[in-house]
Amino acid sequence: MDYKLQMGVVSHLEQMGSLDHSSMDDLDDECLYNPEMDARKAHSTDSIEQVSLSSSLPVGGRKTIRNGVYKSIKTVVFSNKLNLLMPFGPLAILVHKTTAHNGWVFFLSLLGITPLAERLGYATEQLAFFTGPTVGGLLNATFGNATELIISIYALKIGMIRVVQLSLLGSILSNMLLVLGCAFFCGGLVHHRKEQVFSKATAVVNSGLLLMAVMGLLFPAVLHSTHTERHDGKSELALSRFSSCIMLLAYAAYLVFQLKSQKDLYVPIDEEGSQNEEQSDDDDEAPEISKWESIIWLAIMTAWISILSDYLVDTIQGASEAWDVPIAFISVILLPIIGNAAEHASAIMFAMKDKLDISLGVAIGSSTQISMFGIPFCVVIGWMMGCKMDLNFQLFETATLFITVIVVAFFLQEGTSNYFKGLMLILCYLIVAASFFVHEDPLSTGESKRPKT
């Protein structure tokens, strides 16, 4: 009896399952042949076809590209008042082609390069949004010094070795005294109620590298001044080339240390609360142009700076004679101020935002890169070109650099800054500028072009 009852229940459940399956199939069939569903499907397929047809039209694609280019040009070129100086670049070329006034060509070239150097820094900052803070800081320092390196290479091509030496030296002095001083001063005025802090470890590493660069420049100068060369005229050059290779190796090791071991080098190390607050502020900031637009603008600005640098270098001697200003003053003071426009703006901006570690990385990092990479790189490039580019910057210039490094290292040892320290650094730069204005460099006037090897 129980067995029959169980069989009846099972058969009843099977019948219910078959009915459920058949009912579900009927419902599916009804849904498949529903006219409203047919109308919706037809409408959706028509809209998809319209979207695909409109997206495949070449006119719309060209219009989108045109709008993107217009927006990029508007953002980069017309968003800064300093870009009003850009027409002076073509004007310098026009004056050079039509007249022989080297002073005007030099002055107009300086004015034309100024906004380009600043826009170069802007494009680098935009690219830093996609690369991270550490690589972004290195890119900022690298492209910030691109103007000086381009001018140096053009000067090496025509044998103006002394201009190369003085312009690179002036870039180091400008970054360490003027740029860092303005950053400390402006940041201290904005945050006058507290003392701004930065990483002492970073400052110590950069100060050590700068002292190593001073060592590399000091020994060839002392060797030349004491007349103790074993091979007259050759030992100094050989020592300079060997020291340049060592300095390039040290800078490569520094980059590895910075990128691998010290990934948070450009991240402020304040209290945890303020650090998280700054990170949230960074998250709110967004790039204004895309990564590829940044790269394209970097290439355009670098090429245009290269063209104007050629005219700038060719007219230095004429501008010095026309204005009655020493070439040493033009090379050490005027050229670096124009070339450091990007670092100047970036360092002040970050200091006013209480991001002093980034300001220190831009200013002192640029000085470190010029001293440990730019100068040795020019020595090696001159070696390849057959120019006797060496590390003998003469005693006056080397002593100026040595005292500057000591003064800046003294100001950085506490890991704090205020507007008074910034003012002191700016005043020190004024003393350096006045010293080079009254300094007559015999190599700049009489030996601007050296014989090739």
Automatic annotation (TrEMBL):
Start and end residues of each Sodium/calcium exchanger membrane region domain: 104-259, 294-436
GO cellular component: plant-type vacuole membrane
Coiled coil: none
Primary residence: membrane
Source organism, top-level taxon: Eukaryota
Transmembrane feature ranges: 166-191, 203-226, 238-257, 295-313, 325-352, 358-383, 395-413, 419-439
Keywords, sorted A to Z: Antiport, Calcium, Calcium transport, Ion transport, Membrane, Transmembrane, Transmembrane helix, Transport, Vacuole
GO molecular function: calcium:proton antiporter activity
NCBIfam families in alphabetical order: caca2, cax
Membrane topology recorded in Swiss-Prot or TrEMBL: Multi-pass membrane protein
Presence of keyword Membrane: yes
Cited function: Vacuolar cation/proton exchanger (CAX). Translocates Ca(2+) and other metal ions into vacuoles using the proton gradient formed by H(+)-ATPase and H(+)-pyrophosphatase.
Name the record gives this protein: Vacuolar cation/proton exchanger
Alphabetical list of PANTHER family matching this protein: VACUOLAR CALCIUM ION TRANSPORTER, VACUOLAR CATION_PROTON EXCHANGER 2
Taxonomic source organism: Theobroma cacao
Family listed: Belongs to the Ca(2+):cation antiporter (CaCA) (TC 2.A.19) family. Cation/proton exchanger (CAX) subfamily.
